[in-house]
Design brief:
The chain folds into two domains: 5-47 and 117-278, P-loop containing nucleotide triphosphate hydrolases (Rossmann fold, 3-Layer(aba) Sandwich); 52-110, no CATH class. 55% of the residues lie in helices and 13% in strands. It has helices at residues 16-29, 56-64, 70-76, 88-95, 101-108, 117-135, 150-159, 164-178, 193-203, 206-218, 220-224, 229-250, 265-278, and strands spanning 5-9, 34-37, 52-54, 78-80, 83-86, 141-145, 184-189, 254-259. Helix 10 packs across helix 12. The protein is globular and about 55 Å long. The model has no long low-confidence stretch (mean pLDDT 97).
């Protein structure tokens, strides 16, 4: 069976975005129907980006203070069992400054990635299962920039300091959901984590690094270990890398480690083409 899903994983600054776009270009040049889904896409078909999760009671209370957005929230809320899922980031993108800040903050506090780990895992796994079922019916090759390993590890390890086995089981559950798509996972590596991360800090907006460092040091994992600043963030990233290697070794799907330490795009592109040919993605 042809591969329907290519996933690109790795730590921040390692080259996931560059790799994902290269793969997209390689496939489209060969006239393959392809969709690239980047990190943060509010229309992600297998994940929830900027989506809050509310009980009926919580949703009812929210509607009482939603003002002119009451009907919009009712219309846009998706029912998932007893839960109401609201794409608050998409609404903010659409309505801009007319979307009240207090409403946005209330919804963001109940983001799916703020839920207890077991509930987060259940909702996310069901989302991947629904995606896989739909993707089987379509000719498109999907390219996902992270979320398969990154998000479960971030919420499981970084946010809640859960046991390694719990986080691994989370990812293995997602793997089970997508095996029918004959997926290929490319894990991007760098010889020096510190160099790559500090390079990302230099090159990206200050708001990104400030937010990233704050999240990585102020969740349960970082706080319990007294980690602070960029140095503390690097410690968390080293721990994350160790766990991701364990997960990678446990996965049975087609996978490759790709070293991007030299940032040589021409050589790297050739290596990518070879790996895609090896796994039958392209001829």
């Amino acid at each position: 069976m042809k591969t329907k899903l290519i996933m690109v994983e790795g730590l921040p600054g390692f080259g996931k975005s560059t790799t994902s776009r290269m793969i997209y270009d390689i496939l489209t040049e060969r006239n393959m129907e392809t969709r690239l889904v980047v990190e943060g896409d509010v229309d992600h078909p297998a994940d929830y980006e900027g989506t809050s999760c509310l009980t009926e009671e919580e949703f009812g209370r929210l509607l009482q203070v939603a003002g002119s957005f009451k009907e919009i929230l009712i219309e846009r809320a998706a029912k998932k069992g007893s839960w109401n899922l609201i794409p608050y980031q998409k609404l903010k993108n659409e309505y801009g400054t007319s979307f009240p800040d207090d409403l946005y903050h209330s919804l963001s506090k109940q983001d799916i990635y703020e839920l207890p780990l077991d509930l987060n895992r259940r909702l996310i796994t069901e989302r991947w299962e629904a995606f896989a079922e739909q993707a089987l019916q379509e000719p498109t090759v999907m390219i996902f920039e992270c979320c398969f390993i990154q998000n479960p590890v971030t919420v499981g390890m970084v946010k809640y300091d859960a046991l390694d086995d719990q986080v691994m089981d989370y990812v293995l559950g997602l793997e089970k959901a997508i095996l029918g798509l004959n997926p290929v996972l490319l894990y991007i590596e760098q010889d020096s984590l510190e160099y790559a991360f500090r390079k990302a800090i230099r090159e990206r907006p200050e708001a990104w690094s400030t937010g990233f460092v704050h999240y990585y040091t102020q969740q349960v994992y970082g706080k319990q270990r007294g980690l602070e600043g960029v140095e503390g963030t690097l410690e968390v990233l080293e721990a994350r890398r160790r766990l991701e290697y364990r997960i990678l070794d446990s996965l049975g799907l087609n996978k490759e480690r790709m070293n991007n330490s030299y940032y040589d795009q021409e050589t790297y592109r050739t290596m990518l083409i070879d790996k895609l040919k090896l796994h039958g993605v392209i001829q």
